[in-house]
Task: structure prediction
Amino acid sequence: MGPFNVIGRAADLIVVLQEAPTVEDVTAVLVEHGEREPFRLTAADVEALREAAPQLREVFAAASVDEAVTRINALLARYASPPRLTSHGGVHPWHLHADRDDDGPLVDWFMSSTGLAMAFALAERQRPPGGICASESCRRPFADPGGGSPRRYCSPRCATRERVAAHRRAPRDARRP
Result:
């Protein structure tokens, strides 16, 4: 899974975790983003993810590269261990993990893998790996994999809704050519 897929997974999970999610709600987001079932997710795992989610949201909300770096480094210092290869006992192809072990807390896996993906993305592009939607009615976190100018909105729908609202707020005389 590429870094922006992992970052997108984190953004979607943050949204779900803001409510009172069930194990099934969280599992659905993880599976939607390519994680394979069966998951041994528990209610305690969901609660640990809910408690950790604001730390990820802070990375998405970073206003500068330096701020994002500080927040990503804090995630890695708290949750990550030395990188290691695992196949989960031959069940999956070999892949990289930065959590302590295959049987460790799910929150450590999620936060370390997301922190590592954010670090790779920032190092590659030299800008924060995502953002928070500029629409006051949305404020959803999003991954920003594109080149060019950094995104301000989580989707074209939010951008269009904001442009239409700004147009409607403008005085009529200002709208005429």
